[in-house]
Structures are given as structure tokens and as C-alpha cells.
Amino acid sequence: MSIIDTAKQAAQGLMQGAIEKLVPLAPDSWIPGGRPDPLIAHKHGLIGTPVSRRDGALKVKGEAGFAAEFRFDDMAYAALAYATIPRGRITAIDSAAADAAPGVVLVMTHLNAPRMNTPGVFGSSPTAVGPADLPILQDDRIHWNGQPIACVLAETQEQADHAASLLGFTYDAEPSTTSLEGAKANGREPGLFMGQPLHNRIGDADAALATAPHVVDQVYRTPRHNHNPIEPHAATIAWIDGALVIHDASQMVTAQAQTIGEIFDLEPDKVRLTSPYVGGGFGCKGLWDHQIIGAAAAKLAGRPVRITLSREGVYRVVGGRSLTEQRVAIGATAEGRFDALVHTGLSIMTPHNNMPEPFILGTRAAYACPNISLQVDIARMNMLANTFMRAPGEAVGTFALECAVDELAVDLGIDPVELRILNEPDKDPTSGLAFSSRHIVEAWRNGADHFGWADRSVEPATRRDGEWQIGMGCATGTYPYYRMPGAQARITLTRDGDAVRALIEVAAAEMGMGTSTTTAIVGAERLGLSLDQVEVGYGDSSIPGAIMAGGSQQTAAIGAAVIAAHNALVAELLKLAGNDSPLAGLSADTVGSEDAGLAKIDDPTQRESYASILTRAQRDSVTVTAAAAQPLELMHWSMHSHSAIFCEVRVNAVTGETRVSRILGSFDCGRILNPKTAKSQFRGGIIMGLGMALMEETQFDERNGRIMNPSLAEYHIPVHLDVPEIDVIWTDIADPHTPMGAHGIGEIGITGVAAAVANAVYNATGKRVRDLPITLDKLL
Amino acid sequence: MSFVVNGNAVPGPADPRVSLLDHLRETLHLTGTKKGCNQGACGACTVLVDGERILSCLALAVQYDGREITTIEGLAETAALHPLQAAFIEHDGFQCGYCTPGQICSAIGMAAEARRGVPSHVSADLAADVILTRDEIQERMSGNLCRCGAHNGIIDAIQATMAPAPTAETSAELAA
């Protein structure tokens, strides 16, 4: 990260700040979402009914084609070699044996790789999604232990893997920082997240803390994590007539195609990136070195390339979540009202990326408190660039905050549910904005009721079943409502006789969230069609607009783009309808869709079917493309999703083993569009939270910066026997200011879970573990 | 050498280093069987050999001369879905779908093991007939990782198909 980049980010932050000052003051009606989406009033349509995934049959038959399953004629297979020092230079490469190995097509290193531009690091421009601001195979420099430094192409994967193992490298090591203490000693900097400082100060928290009658002041630690989607990263790549075609596994198809185009000096229409199925992402299926190396090797060899990372390769090339050290201090009155809230600490990143784990984000809007101090500092280490992982910030931030709230509840002798409800804010405590939709108290009450919270033993370490100690815990989860700019939708309405069909295309990604199914549900409802009349296209950079499956924003971004495209479709159809239509003379804003046609909103008897309009206009189809309104609503309201997590654990008094026996998530996330896939999303997040609580840790060798457990055998994730039946309920109260009244729900599930487990472990054993994961050695 | 995959005789590999998984995916283009870790830790590559579940990434293709292999593509006898495939859709037993073929093949092999009386870590009586309780299914399926978190739906689908709850009819039979 250069000083110039930092200055540019700060400037972007200032501009953002100026807009943020004006937008909150504007009247609601000027803001997107100022008038509720009419679909919110549709109570008994498709929205809210459980629908099975439309790609279900393909997936259970093994017929869904993932990135490593595309083929090109004459395709070569790639294998990578990785650096074994954390920092320095390559002084010599011995490739004689690899060059001579059977089947080898190419050995590519920095000495012979094509010249390429350095990728723009994520966020440095609207289209940049590079992993770091580092050149890739362009010089002899090593920046992390595991950096890819050579690529072998061969006729088969076995030949490529073998040849890569024959490569020899000589290094000149340079001083590096690979320990947490070393990084701290080098100095701290204030963290900037998306151009904005990770810092808030309201009142004087230190002074309030010093005089508060009840104080909790603790440090909580979370380790590195890896996403570990079961599909390893892969790309199948070909240069065809000067254009680059990449079949990839991507959460950001368009932005990735744009960044790759910039790297290879290609016009935007000369890169096509498809990603029809993504075998799990959780934040890591973006642009990393391997796609760029694969494209460079394909160019140099003049052959298509399949590059699939080994599982170890994923750990070497694809960054994970960084570690954090967080201090949470809460000062409270005797009645339990918060008077001081401090959430500060440190996260680690590299000299070449800009992703401080923003663990204070969820704290900003969590509790009413007159004195708040929040700050994320960063220190830098020579390691693989860290990145977004499911609920970056909130996943680990809620662990620290919600454990501290539980500790305070114990100190005060107040039920932790009641303590949270007592400190519920009536407006955003740091921004001062009104909440767009916040029904967290209802979520707490519903959850406590369903879970049987009243049966909890208040005194810790008092319930026992043989050698198993039993306890209950709870925590709040939270994740913001986001909607990123740049989304577009294209709607094509086609007539075949009297039958009509709609194709809705969005440059979005489907990683199993159910996006394609939900988009069809919402699209059918909006267009007044049945589900089987609507087809959804996605996962292709040739579709207009850019939509990222990140920040839990995809559903909202698609929703807003489809609203815009639907408005354009209505206007276009009214034009085509002409003077002989029952709709003649009506303006687009007085007309809506219903029952496969257009109708006047306040007099639906005045209507004409799509088929009739198109027939009279002698058209077989009509296509419109429109961009979503700018997401100004994010600056006008404080917009968040919420959850109340309840959990029961059994801790073995002999072995220290913790088993989660029951867990319930009570969610307040706007209107739920497809209960079937939503429940799976919530459960999936909760299960990743169980992993974070009890077993997940990327082990990093502080002597040399190498990840020591780069495998699914040694990085433990929850398996079937670790996962109890997970109860999920929701308020289903529409947010009046979002498309469909919905919120994205991909990330909220993981938040709060680790704290709920840790708090239950305390209730079971009387032991506080403030250092994740809660492994048995910490309980003995 | 040759072996039978989904009822069809197919050639063996040209290179003895080729795993059964890579042979299926790269030579036979049967990409329904997935590679998740290539070291036997995730179960995504599970296929059935003569009805038994194996990890095809840890198997050299040349070892399977003359054996009968069933992959996800060969489970359904007709164009319709195998009942377990249908149950996975009904119970939303997947999200991204990448671990799914391995989960389904593994569950079919698992049910056969249970019918043969093979005990598991959670079996209270090693000599008794195996009843596929939820615990038994969870334990026996723990070699198949899922990261999206579809565990509940996967177990629901397997339980509904392989160990259905007693109906009035079967209960009456049991009582008699």
C-alpha cells in the first residue's frame, strides 16, 4: 500500500463524508426506498412460500458444471510451485529436470512470463478487485511464504504436478516480520475500511469508565481463519482470437473480468468471465494469483489451460480472515444502563493490501450509550494478503462484544437477555440516524420463548448429567444492510402466440445462496407472471452491470436493478401499446404489472395483457436494460439485520470436550423471500460460527510465516456429528425502505454464535474462555 | 485392463499414477464426482465400488480392473431421480452442490453397511442390528464434509429415505 494510495483512499473518504452530510437531511421521499416497494404489500403471492432450488436436479445428479469441469480442445494442465521463505529474492532457478520431464509443455517463471500490469488492489478503484498491489511473476521478489513463483504446464495433471516438484529455487532471504509481537514492535496505524477510518468517539468513554459502578474490561482474541469451500479454486482459460475467456469460480464476475482486462491491457469486451456454479465462496472466490498466472501461461504456451489449486495451494494463494486482539470495556450504572462502551484493538494485514478486520462495525449501532470509543489499529506482517471472510468484522467483533455483555450481566446479576433489551437504542448511537427497521426486542422475546431460556440455571457450573456439565448462553448477532452501486438488470419479454415468457439477466453469482431461485420468485411476482414463465440468467460478465455476491448485498442489488428494469419495461410496453390500447394515455408511474399484463394501479380493470400489446405492435419480444438507483438509502437510515442466538452446550468434566446440544437463531432480517433457502442460509452461517467457536484456526508458524495446517484434515470444520438440529425463526417484518422489504442474509448467521457458545460454556463450567477456539485444553 | 462404470465397460488409465477420481473426471468426463482435497479428508470424491463406498481420490484407477463402479451419474435407474436425490432437493440438503454427489453416494454405501450390521463409534451394542437413528447417521456421514452448512437437510434427507419413521402400517407389522 503506497502513501499515494492511502491518500487517494482518504480523499475518497472525504467525498463520501460530504455526501453523507447531505443525504441524511434530505426528505425520505427523495431517497431510494423512500416510498415502500409495492411488492411489500403483496401478501399472498410467491414471496414467502418455500420453493425448492431450481438448479437442484442438476446438482444432485452431478450435472452442474463447475469451473474445473469446462474443457477446451488441446487444453494443458497447470501446477504451481510456491516460495518457502517469507521475504527476499530468487537468485537462481533450476528447471532442467522439470523442462525435461515427460509431457511438459512450459515452465513459466518471472524470467519468461509475459509482461503484465500490476492488479489494482481491491477497492483502489471501482473496478479493482486484485488481492494485493503486487506484480505477479514479474520480478524476483518474494513477499510471502507460499507465494506462487513458477507454473508448469503439461499434457496431464499428473505430469504437471511431478514436473513442478522437480523445480529448484535458491533464495536470498531478507529480514521479515512474521510474529505478532514483531508486527506490534514495528508500529501501529489507524485502520481504514473502504476509505473510511475505523474510529468513532462519542462523549468521553475513558472518563465514564473510570467512574462507573460496574465495569467489565477484558481482551478477547480470535485467530486466523480460512474459508475452506469444498470446491478448490479453479479456472479453465483460453485465448480465442485475441480475447480472453475464463470459466471461473467467482463471486464477482464483472469486476474480476475488468481487473483481468486491465492486467493484460485488454478492452472490456475482450474478456469474458463465466461462473455458472460456485462450489462455496464465503468471501474467498475472487481474483487471486492463479487466474492471472493461468491466463499468462495460456498466452505464452498458445494453448488453453486448466488451473486447479490443490487444497494446500488454496491455503498458499487464497487469503483468509486475519487475527484480532480486541479490548472491550463496558461501564454500567447499578441498574445496568451502559454509560461507557470501549471496543478497540488490533488486526494484522500485509504491506500490500488494505483489509483491516473491521471488528467494530457491529458495535457502532449495537447499544444505547452516551460515551463510546471505537478504534481498529493495524500492524503489518509479511504474509499472504488477508481478505473478507463471512461477516468480516462482525463475526469476530460480536464474539468480543457479546462475551463482554455476558460478563457484565453476571457482574450485575441481571439476566443477559434483559440487559440487552434494557440498553436497546432508539436511534443509531454513533451516526444519530433513524433505524430503517429494527425489531431486535421481538427477536429476543420470540427466541427466549422458543428456546426455553427460562429454564437456564443462573448460577454457573450447577447443571450436570453424569460427567457432562450443561449450560446455556446467548448473544446478539448483527450485520449491516448493504447495497453496492453498479447493478443493472436486463429483462426480455418474449411472446409465442398467446404465451409469454420473461428472461431476467443479472451479472450476479450463485454460490448456493439460492439467488437464481429467489430472483425468479421476485421477478415473477413483480412482472405478474407464474414462476415457470420466468428464467434467470446470471454468472456471466457479458451481462450488463456489476453485482458482487459480497456484503450480503446481492439480493438487494438485484432487487433494485429489477425494479428499475421493470419500470423501463412498463414504459416501453406503454409506448408499444399505442392509442388503441385500453391503457392509452396512462403514464408509466400509474401502471403496474399483474396477471401477465399491465393494469392501471388504482383501477385494475383498465388493463391489457403483455401478449396482446406485443401482438398489436407486431413484436415477438421486447428487451430493456436499466441500472439500479444509487444506494443513498444507506446514508439516510441506519440499516442493519439482527439476531438473537441461544445455545446449550455440554462440556465433559473429564476430557474438556464441548458439544453443542441445542442452538436456536431468532432473526430480524426484513421480509424472508424464500423460507426454504433462507433457513439453509441461516443454518449455514450458524454452523460456520460453531466451527469458529470450537475448532477453527489457521495455524501460522511465527518463525517463518508458513501456514502449518493447509489441509482439511488439519484445519477442522464442523462435521455431521458436530451439528445438532438447528432451530431457526424470524420476525418476517418487512423493512419499508428496501426492495421487497428484504435484507441480505448470507452473513448474519455466523455473527453472535461464537459468543453464545462461549457464554454457554461459562454457564456450564464457570470458566471464561476469551481466546478462540474453545478447545478442550482451555477448559481443563 | 477395463472396468465397468455405471454399467458401461470403460478403458483403464494410460498412466498408472492416475487416481480413480482423475480417471473418472479427466478421461471419462464423468465430472459429477468431485475433487475437494485429493487426500481423503473431505469425502467429495466418494463413489461406490461393488456397492461399497470408497474415496476415489485415494484409489489408483489401475487397482479397479474388473470391478463395478457406480458414480452419481449412474444412481438413478431411469432418467428420473434416485429417491435419495429427490429427498436432497425436498429437504434442501445442499447449497452450492459441490459436496452433494459425494454425500449421496456415501449415504447409499452407509445404508448398506448398516444393513450388514457394521457398528459405528456411537453404536451402544456392537453385536446388535443397526438401527439408523439420527446419531448413527450423523456419525457414519461425518467423513463427508459440507462447508455451506447443509448438515441438517442432508441428515433429514437420508433419514427420510434410508430410515423412514414407522408408518401406521409398519408399526402394525412390528406389533404383530
TrEMBL record, chain A:
Pfam families: Ald_Xan_dh_C, MoCoBD_1, MoCoBD_2. GO terms for molecular function: iron ion binding; oxidoreductase activity. Keywords: Molybdenum, Oxidoreductase. Residues 61-175 form the Aldehyde oxidase/xanthine dehydrogenase a/b hammerhead domain. It comes from the Bacteria. This is Xanthine dehydrogenase molybdenum binding subunit apoprotein. It comes from Sphingomonas aerolata. The lineage of its organism: Bacteria, Pseudomonadati, Pseudomonadota, Alphaproteobacteria, Sphingomonadales.
UniProtKB/TrEMBL annotation, chain B:
This is Xanthine dehydrogenase YagT iron-sulfur-binding subunit. Keywords: 2Fe-2S, Iron, Iron-sulfur, Metal-binding, Oxidoreductase. It comes from the Bacteria. Residues 1-75 form the 2Fe-2S ferredoxin-type domain. InterPro entries: 2Fe-2S-bd, 2Fe-2S-bd_dom_sf, 2Fe-2S_ferredoxin-like_sf, 2Fe-2S_ferredoxin-type, 2Fe2S_fd_BS, Aldehyde_Oxdr_Iron-Sulfur, Beta-grasp_dom_sf. It comes from Sphingomonas aerolata. One of its GO terms (molecular function) is 2 iron, 2 sulfur cluster binding.
